[in-house]
Design goal:
By secondary structure, the protein is α+β, with helices and mostly antiparallel strands. It is built from 15 helices and 18 strands. Bound molecules: flavin-adenine dinucleotide.
C-alpha cells in the first residue's frame, strides 16, 4: 500500500489530482464500466498531461506498486483498475485536435470515441472505431478497433500514423513507421503492454455526416431464415453498406410495438454511407424477402449512429464476454446459434456478428501486431450482460456453452479479439495472436518493458 509521504510525493510531482481511499471521489475513480469488477487501488493518479504520466509511471516503477492504465474504463476484464496498486487515469487527457487540410487528428490517450467522432465530423472527416460512444480510444486503438467503418477504412490501428508513448523507464518516445518502428508495430494490436500512449495520431477519411440506418427485428422462431437472409445481404452489400446481425431482446423504445418490447429475437442493423443508393435497395430486399416483425429505417447524423447504442450498453451492468471469429454464417454456424440463443436469460445479453472484409483485408497480415488474421471473416461478440450478478451467472454459462459449441467452426484456435477477452492466460493470448506474432511481441516487450511494469492487461511476458 502507499504511505502518506509517498502519496504526498506523488501529489507534489503531478498537476492532476491524486485520489486516495477515503477521498470523496475515490469510489467514482475506481469504478469501471463492468460492475462485476470491484477493485480497490491504493491510489488513482488522474493525469493532466504527459508530464503527469511520466511522474506516475516513475512512482510505480520506484515503489514497486502494481500499475494499471485507465483509458475509457470500458474493458470488460476491468484491466484499467488494479487492487492495491496505482491507476494511471488518462480520462482528463481527452483533447482531439483535427488538421482538416492534412486529414489528420491528434487524440489524447484518454479520449472517448464520442470525443473523436464529434471533433472529426465537424470537418466531415472520420476515423474508423467501435460502435459505442463511451468506449475509450486508448484500449480500442491498441487492441484493433472495429465497427461500422471497418469495411470502408480498415481497423482503427490501420489508420494510426504515430503515437506518443511514455515507456517503462520514463522516456517520452514517438513511435511511427520511421521512429521506433518495432514499437509502432507492437502498439497496433499488442494492447497496453508497451507503454502509456499519451497521444495518438490518426489518418482521417472524408465521410458524409448523414448516414442511412435500418433496424429489422424478427421473432425467435424465425432465427434460421433471418441468419440465412443475413448471409445473402452480407454477400451482396457493397463497401458503402455494412450489416451487423445477431440475436438480442427488442428494446423498450417507442418505435417498437408493445407486444415485441423486451421479447427475444433476431435483428439486422444495416447502415449506408456517403449517400449510397444500395442501402435503400437492400432495405427493400430485406422487407420483401422476410417481412420483419417491426423495423425502423431513417437517416441520421453519423455522430448519432455512433451513440445510438450507448444507453443499451450503459455503465453499471454486469458483463462477461468470449470472442471468436467464423468464416461466415454457414449452415452449421446457424444451427449452433439458433440452438443456443433461446437459452439466453438476461434481456441485455446478446450475440452479434460484424463483417471484417474489404479494407480490413487490404492490410497485410504482418503489417501490424493485430492477431485476428486478415482473411475475410465475421467477428462474433458473445456478450452476457445483466443488471445483476445472479442473472449474469446464468448468462456466463450461456456464453461459455455457445462459445464451446462454436469453437469447432471457428477460425484458428477459436480465441478471438484480445479486446474482448475477460478470461485469459498465456496460452489463450498465444492462441489469439498466433505463435509467431506472440514471439515477436515478447521480444519487443523485452526491449521496451523488460521488468513487465505494464502487466495489468492482456499481458505479453518479456521474451
Ligand atoms: C459494451 C462494449 C462494446 C464494445 N464495442 C466494441 C466495438 O464496437 N469495437 C471494438 O473494436 N471493440 C469493442 N469493445 C471492446 C473494447 O475495444 C475494449 O473494451 C477496449 O479495451 C476499451 O478501451 P478503453 O480505453 O475504454 O478501456 P480501458 O478499460 O480503459 O483500457 C483497457 C486496457 O487498455 C490499455 N489502455 C487503454 N488506454 C491506454 C493508453 N492510452 N495507453 C496505454 N494503454 C492503454 C490498458 O492496458 C487498459 O488496461 C467493446 C467493449 C464493450 C464493453
Amino acid at each position: 500500500m502507499i504511505t502518506m509521504s509517498g502519496a504526498e510525493a506523488l501529489r507534489a510531482s503531478m498537476s492532476g489530482p491524486v485520489i486516495l481511499p477515503g477521498d470523496a471521489d475515490y469510489d467514482e475513480a475506481r469504478t469501471v464500466w463492468n460492475a462485476e469488477v470491484d477493485r480497490r487501488p491504493a491510489t488513482v493518479a488522474r493525469c493532466a498531461g504527459t508530464e503527469d504520466v511520466v511522474a506516475a509511471v516513475g512512482f510505480a516503477r520506484d515503489t514497486g506498486l502494481v500499475m494499471s492504465v485507465r483509458g475509457g474504463a470500458h474493458n470488460a476484464a476491468g484491466t484499467a483498475v488494479c487492487d492495491d496498486g496505482l491507476v494511471v487515469d488518462l480520462s482528463r487527457m481527452n483533447r482531439v485536435v483535427v488538421d482538416p487540410g492534412a486529414r489528420r487528428a491528434r487524440v489524447g490517450g484518454g479520449a472517448l470515441l464520442a470525443d473523436v467522432d464529434a471533433a472529426t465530423q465537424a470537418h466531415g472527416l472520420a476515423v474508423p472505431t467501435g460502435i459505442i460512444g463511451h468506449t475509450g480510444i486508448g484500449g480500442i486503438a491498441l487492441g484493433g478497433g472495429m465497427g461500422w467503418l471497418t469495411r470502408k477504412f480498415g481497423l482503427t490501428i490501420d489508420n494510426m500514423l504515430s503515437a506518443e508513448v511514455v515507456s517503462a523507464d520514463g522516456r517520452v518516445l514517438r513511435a511511427s513507421a520511421d521512429e521506433h518502428p518495432e514499437l509502432f508495430w507492437a502498439l497496433r494490436g499488442g494492447s497496453g503492454n508497451f507503454g502509456v500512449v499519451t497521444e495518438f495520431e490518426f489518418r482521417l477519411h472524408p465521410l458524409d455526416p448523414m448516414v442511412e440506418f435500418g433496424l429489422f427485428f424478427w421473432t425467435l422462431e424465425q432465427g434460421p431464415e433471418v441468419l440465412r437472409l443475413a448471409r445473402e445481404v452480407l454477400a451482396a452489400m457493397p463497401v458503402d453498406v455494412n450489416l451487423i446481425a445477431g440475436a438480442l431482446h427488442a428494446p423498450p423504445e417507442p418505435f417498437v410495438p408493445e407486444e415485441h418490447q423486451l421479447r427475444p429475437g433476431y435483428a439486422m442493423l444495416l447502415t449506408g454511407f456517403d449517400g449510397t443508393p444500395e442501402h435503400a435497395r437492400l432495405v427493400a430486399r430485406i422487407r420483401e424477402q422476410l417481412p420483419p416483425a417491426f423495423d425502423m429505417v431513417t437517416s441520421m447524423p453519423y455522430v448519432d449512429l455512433q451513440r445510438m447504442l450507448d444507453d443499451a450498453n450503459a455503465w453499471g451492468n454486469y458483463c462477461y464476454t468470449k470472442p471468436t471469429y467464423v468464416e461466415g454464417l454457414t449452415d452449421p454456424v446457424i444451427q449452433v446459434v439458433t440452438e443456443h440463443v433461446p437459452r439466453k436469460n438476461s434481456p441485455l445479453s446478446l450475440l452479434l456478428f460484424y463483417p471484417l472484409d474489404e479494407a480490413y483485408s487490404r492490410t497485410g497480415e504482418d503489417d501490424t501486431a493485430f492477431g485476428g488474421g486478415r482473411t475475410p471473416r465475421l467477428i462474433t461478440f458473445l456478450v452476457g450482460y445483466a443488471p445483476d450478478a445472479t442473472l449474469l451467472e446464468a448468462d456466463r454459462a450461456w456464453v461459455r456453452n455457445l462459445w464451446d459449441a462454436l469453437r469447432p467452426l471457428a477460425i484458428g484456435t477459436g480465441h478471438g479479439y484480445v479486446n474482448e477477452l475477460v478470461e485469459f492466460d498465456e496460452d489463450v493470448l498465444r492462441g489469439s495472436y498466433g505463435a509467431a506474432k506472440y514471439e515477436r511481441l515478447a521480444g519487443i516487450k523485452a526491449e521496451y518493458d523488460p521488468g513487465n511494469l505494464f502487466r495489468h492487461n492482456t499481458n505479453i511476458k518479456p521474451g
